[in-house]
Amino acid sequence: MRYNEVTDHQTSLGGTTINAWETWARTRGAGSPPPFSSMLILAEAYGRGPLGVTAEDVSPNDLISEAYERLPPEDQLSLKRWSTKNDIRLPRSARNTIERAARQITPHRTDIGQDFNLSVPTIDYGNPEICVFSLPNPRPGNLLDLSWDTFGFGIERLMRQIKNMGWRLDVDICFGVNEAGLVMATFLASAQFSRCAIGYLRCNKVRDRIALDPTSFYPDAGEAPTILICDFEVKHADVVGFLAGEIRRRYPKALLYFAVFGAMTKGSGLEVNSFDELTGAKIMRAADFSAVFIAATMNPPGIEPPLELR
Q1: What are residue 198's DSSP bridge partners?
Q2: Cα gap 195→135, rounded to integer Å
Q3: Rounded CA gap, 211 and 65, in Å?
Q4: Range(s) for CATH 3.40.50.2020 in the chain?
Q5: In the CATH scheme, what architecture does the domain 112-308 have?
Q6: pTM above 0.70?
Q7: Which tens digit of pLDDT belongs to each residue from 46-99?
Q8: Quick one: how far is CA 126 from the chain centroid?
Q9: Which of 14, 96, 175, 226 gives 199 a disulfide partner, CB atoms 3.0 to 4.6 angstroms apart?
């Protein structure tokens, strides 16, 4: 009623639409979000108070709170511009998303190479095209040290790929492989998967094989959970195949997804034309992941995470 009063009854908003908005605010993957124009109207309506006579400034950002990141990109940008113009402070989650978006559209970065599209294994009827960036090494033959900024940029790129895979991916557990993978899993679980459970896979090299350390952690999960394995890099060794087998043994009928920061290329060129031009392509295919996400490509001998996370 108040919504229609604000528009001088030029609209006929009803209970069905409001129910869809409230369902969206409460539950991920259900209902539909209010468009930016409707948020402005709702903000004015709430600003009039319970008797309709108050003149309080209510920000549309306050109406959506933590659901900000689930808004369409167009409405997020509209909120950003509106808030800047009106000098209203965005919620922390909104500010973080805006800062990420600003970095993603930065036209040039000195520490990374070109973006290119790559077709990767994915779910049936999913979007196989992902946007990957290259990591040129100015010192061939040496590990490429990454800054925290580049590391974070790669995690943001993985988030964008997950969001654009063609359907909403809800994950029950994010597993991190060693410390660098654990950092990736922590960020993705928090920002992308509603703070889902986080697991830890600590790998030890025992002669010519890989063994999992007893300090590895396996969260409880229901039947047939959806699991994302996060690893910092994929080279020649079949570590991911071993880990996928171990996860499937502990979680029968689990659906496994794989996110890797850096994938090594077979040749010197980083902007590969095919997934099979990656050194670990056969390894990742054999692991039978439901989908694969890759932030960047790299040359031998590989990349080094910030603070030498192992």
Answers
A1: 174
A2: 30
A3: 44
A4: 112-308
A5: 3-Layer(aba) Sandwich (3.40)
A6: no
A7: 877 666 666 677 777 767 766 777 777 778 777 777 766 554 444 555 555 545
A8: 16
A9: 175
